[in-house]
Design brief:
Blueprint lengths: L1 H5 L1 H16 L4 H24 L8 H31 L1 H5 L4 E5 L1 E4 L9 E5 L2 E5 L11 E6 L6 E7 L1
Helix pairs in contact: 2-3, 3-4
């Protein structure tokens, strides 16, 4: 068993869902998988910061600073998960039972599309939604019907209404 943990194959198997989910975040389950890994990395870094002796680092000052940086990074990842992704886990029952909320109207606000984000923020009737469906910014005059999850405001389906 000890050899299994030291092998690169075990690490690749453990990390495969994380890397795959990075490319398919427009699907709810991949989004949840990605967020779960962010939480796990944060917890792992906090544990490493407190438990690991880091004996390979010879200088005690560098060892102390490394432990502090690792712990702070772990806390940051846990806070990031709490602020950004935790509402997605509250939406699992609604997603499984297909208990989506529906909103209909013209967008009050459509965020710009940039390469660093998978989501576009769309505000309809003062409700801000996370959408993977790309709407051009100049389409604010078209009426839309959106099916979204109640806690995370993650858009499941988006239709143009003529």
């Amino acid at each position: 068993m000890r050899r299994l943990f030291k092998s690169n194959i075990f690490g690749a198997i453990i990390m495969a869902p994380f890397f795959i989910s990075m490319f398919f975040m427009e699907h709810f389950w991949f989004w949840l998988t990605f967020s779960f890994y962010i939480l796990l990395f944060g917890i792992l870094l906090i544990i490493l910061g407190f438990v690991s002796r880091m004996q390979k680092i010879e200088s005690s000052i560098k060892r102390l600073l490394t432990r502090i940086v690792v712990t702070i990074t772990g806390i940051g990842l846990v806070i990031f998960f709490t602020l950004v992704f935790s509402s997605g886990f509250l939406d699992i029952p609604a997603y499984l039972s297909k208990d989506y909320k529906v909103i209909r109207g013209k967008p009050d606000y459509i965020s710009s599309i940039h390469s660093k984000s998978v989501f576009q923020t769309i505000e309809i009737n003062n409700i801000s939604l996370k959408s993977v469906y790309i709407i051009p910014e100049d389409n604010s005059f078209i009426e839309y019907k959106a099916y979204y999850l109640p806690n995370s405001k993650y858009v499941i389906k988006l239709f143009e209404i003529n």
